[in-house]
């Protein structure tokens, strides 16, 4: 996973595809490995963190029926928290674009997801003057 820091887009894409491929064979194992890697590398630059998060999303989406309930709950929580943090960090420079995207998650008559509200709140705090 250290290769995700390679600046070459082709290498980054190959890492993403490799993680997804491994996730097809051993979804729980690769999700736990990605989760552990992100925890151990909390200073990993956001573009590189996104590669791992996207792979985790793909593995979860493609294998949701195969995942143990506790694994799915733990991994999805961590993944959503990390994704929220990425949006907040990007929002420090591109607040209008991020806010535009977050606001699309507010639908009339539907209670927004916890992480949508948390992201919205954290964007407000990080950009408050």
From TrEMBL:
One GO cellular component term noted in the UniProt record for this chain: cytoplasm
Transmembrane segments: none
Domain MROH2B-like N-terminal HEAT-repeats, chain residue ranges per copy: 20-127
Stated name of the protein: MROH1 protein
Organism: Piprites chloris (Wing-barred manakin)
């Amino acid at each position: 996973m250290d290769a995700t820091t390679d600046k070459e887009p082709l290498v980054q894409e190959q890492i993403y595809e490799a993680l997804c491929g491994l996730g097809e064979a051993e979804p729980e194992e690769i999700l736990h490995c990605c989760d552990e890697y992100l925890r151990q590398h909390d200073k990993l630059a956001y573009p590189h963190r996104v590669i791992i998060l996207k792979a985790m999303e793909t593995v979860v989406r493609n294998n949701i029926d195969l995942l143990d309930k506790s694994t799915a709950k733990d991994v999805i929580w961590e993944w959503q928290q990390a994704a929220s943090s990425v949006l907040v960090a990007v929002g420090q420079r591109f607040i209008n674009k991020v806010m535009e995207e977050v606001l699309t998650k507010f639908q009339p008559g539907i209670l927004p997801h916890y992480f949508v509200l948390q992201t919205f709140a954290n964007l407000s705090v990080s950009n408050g003057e």
